[in-house]
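[job 0412] stage=complex_fold ligand=pyrrole-2-carboxylate status=START
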Amino acid sequence: MASSTFVCIDAHTCGNPVRVIKHGGPDLVGTTMSEKRQHFLKEFDWIRKGLMFEPRGHDMMSGSIFYPPSNPDNDFGILFIETSGCLPMCGHGTIGAITIGIEEGLIVPKIPGEVRMETPAGLVKIKYQQTGNKVDWVQLTNVKSYLAATDLTIESSDLGELTFDVSYGGNYYAIIDPQVNFTGIQDFSASKLIQFSQELREKINVKYSNKFIHPEDSSIKNVSHILWTGTTISAKATARNAVFYGDKAIDRSPCGTGTSARMAQWHAKGLLGKGVDFIHESYIGSQFIGRVEEETTLKGKPAIIPSITGWAKIYGQNTISIDDDDPYAYGFQV
Ligand code: PYC
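[job 0412] stage=complex_fold status=DONE, emitting structure tokens
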């Protein structure tokens, strides 16, 4: 019987889980985090399944593993592991990982208060504020984000024909705004949104197959997330979302890559200017502050460089074993 032990630190970012694997992550081959991600998916995906799925995880579980940087100017590299696979970039995961990394001494940045982090989607620059041993907030400046397509249509068996845009913020998002068939996410429970999203994501990736491929990294492709929008809870919030990811998750945080995609969409449509706060509210009402930091291009297409600010709290130290003799060693989903 083989047994592997993983020393983890558990936290949540604005309500959504983050599990950092402190010890037990595998050595990976590759010069970039994108190549290391491919190596992990090929040979070590059992670790992700064992630590993310039930009984050791749950539908929303999300985590990361730290690696030495490829470029010595940077502080570290990160691999995101989720129920859905290994995302190229994860905003709530970044805010949680930085909070854990700094508070637990796993990251010692070259410049205190600033971190340069290599992700599979590219370099992410981070600022954070610390009081004593606690990290108060984390601000990440994300990869280039852009509106990829507008006014596409798809048939939902529950809601009828829906019009949506697709926008990239580190992952590709189908953004579904209120329209004739629904007035917003406030109409639906999280489980209903999951049910609609499961069908829609599959249909979108069939109908628009090969349409969404990152112009600089072809391993990043297809719509992986659905971002539904609706009426804000707080009068101070700019917008509210419910982001579907994995197979059965609605993000409890406002979703960092989703907020980036949403800001790219609004900016491209003239609804959001550079430097203006975009207060994004999650399904449970927690908030991130987004901002368009720079207007730029990505392979000739208009794009933005967004920032996202949020907070995370550590709640547990968790030593987890995966034993071959456990019938559920590699998790299950119901
Ligand atoms: O915050 O980018 C994010 C994210 C992706 C999936 C869940 N959260």
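The chain has two domains: 3-138+313-323, 146-299.
[job 0412] exit 0
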